[in-house]
Amino acid sequence: MTSTVLVTGGAGYIGSHTCLRLLECGYRVIVLDNFSNSSPEALNRVQSLTGKTLEIITGDVNDGAALNTLFARHQIDAVVHFAGLKAVGESVAEPLMYYHNNVSGAVSLLQAMQSAGVRDLVFSSSATVYGDPASLPITEDFPTSTTNPYGRSKLMIEEMLRDLYRSDASWNLALLRYFNPVGAHPSGQIGEDPAGIPNNLLPYIAQVAVGRREHLSVFGGDYETHDGTGVRDYIHVMDLAEGHVKALQWLTRKQGLAAFNLGTGSGYSVLDMLHAFERACGKTLAYQIVDRRPGDVGSCYADPTLAARELDWKAERGVNAMCADAWRWQQQNPNGYN
Ligand code: NAD
Ligand code: UD1
Question: Is 99 a catalytic residue?
Fold first, then answer.
């Protein structure tokens, strides 16, 4: 029997790549998105790349009445919940907007699921919940802590899901803690399309490569890392998409609640990534080392063993593929979806 998955925020960066994989794997997909940080064009392209259709509902996860209608009209087997805001700096300036959108949005979605008897959820969490880790690599049982409202919104939702599960063990909940998602679908048709000046490293480097920005500012050259610049666990967005398929399969085995790191297990520095991108685009890219960015940690990378064992999932793509695919997307779409 075909499973039907509701994907909130399915038009966004990770959501669009996941919808593509879900369609390829034979799922029926319904997307709920308010397009506050995405374009319907991403979903048009997902449909043309797969030759399959998905249902698109324009709406907000905070609209409980719309959610109830949606669940009444469709037989939904599971929900993948991406919808949320994700800019750390903006969350510091506008905390209520983040708590409303992310935390209240999750409450409203869970209430609608509860009323409709839908119990299977995959939730987008983040490695940000580990704060500044005491040691590396990071396993799922590390203590959690956060330094900003965005991170706290993720942690609050994780805690809420644990309370929900304690109250009723029929819930079936996979909390996926993403490390640093980068790259694009190898077609170059869908990818990351940040509004304004990118906050994250790879989209910024890609815009330097395409000539939209003059140089990369490297935030800090005095970390205790092999070249002094910050180290992260970059993960290809198609590997991440596959992780969601595996998490949905895990839920069908009625597993309860668990958090999983989705990372590669390897750390790369800012300069490693810059040089990998230079190889991908065949250009030398200008950079300047500047002060550390407040709130940044020196190094962060996953121990992905639990996901390998429980989900049968492992990241397959390396940094060269991440940069080559990000570059293809950037070159073919210098202004994103516009
Ligand atoms: P994105 O902004 O590209 O996608 C989020 C999508 O949700 C967008 O299409 C947006 O329009 C939609 N949306 C936002 N608020 C909504 C609401 N109230 N109702 C309906 N739709 C709404 O972000 P992304 O990078 O694809 O991230 C997806 C999820 O993964 C987010 O929850 C994010 O916090 C989490 N995450 C992202 C990263 C990352 O680096 N990209 C890392 C860790 C976790
Ligand atoms: C950021 C968020 C984190 C979120 C994650 C994934 C902050 C403080 N943290 O993490 O909450 O979960 O994105 O979306 O914003 N860098 C530069 N120059 C740049 C941009 C980044 O040197 O112009 C460096 C950073 O200092 C870091 C690395 O590149 O060492 C990666 O940065 P980024 O892509 O922003 O991700 P994180 O900081 O890991």
Answer: no
